[in-house]
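G., before I forget:
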Amino acid sequence: AQSVAQPEDQVKVAEGNPLTVKCTYSVSGNPYLFWYVQYPNRGLQFLLKYITGDNLVKGSYGFEAEFNKSQTSFHLKKPSALVSDSALYFCAVRDADYGQNFVFGPGTRLSVLP
Amino acid sequence: SAVISQKPSRDICQRGTSLTIQCQVDSQVTMMFWYRQQPGQSLTLIATANQGSEATYESGFVIDKFPISRPNLTFSTLTVSNMSPEDSSIYLCSVEQGPNQPQHFGDGTRLSIL
């Protein structure tokens, strides 16, 4: 079965500092991995994905994520946080080999302090 | 990416009534999904809306409570039937345009039952 963990339900960083939002996953086959952001009263917005290839993937709004197969992790990073990055972040996984549905993590609330 | 319009954006309903939520996509898509998100929580898949056939429901969700229509490749509806306060939640429509593609979401319907 697929599963996603986001070990921190809340992350606080100061504006201008680097940020990391953690995600670990479990799948039987190869993973497709995704990050989404949700602002208040909005749906989920796609940030980036890992399908295959380079372990470091770059996405929207300056975000990037690193796929680490040995640690089954896909942490979201940004070199310099903005107050406007404050939102709810979701990691999601799909098992590429078994064609199952997306599974979303519990979410991490990021607060960037001015 | 596809643009998804979801209606209504929010509603307050009486116990025992039903509400139909609409999801319109600006392009033809194979896969459409309906999720439930309780405030501040993660997403739970209700069902996959299949064009031309019955929806595929996840464990814990039944057709009598959440009937779904998918008359064509750009439109789907979800009805929340015989509502109770426990149905107060955010309901999200999403679409997927390929097996290694991200899902894209509408802005959701925020439903409160009195």
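The CA atoms of residues 15 and 114 of chain A lie 5 Å apart. The interface with chain B takes residues 32, 34, 36, 41-46, 49, 51, 88, 90, 92, 96, 99, 101-102, 104-107, 109 of chain A (CB under 8 Å).

More on Monday.
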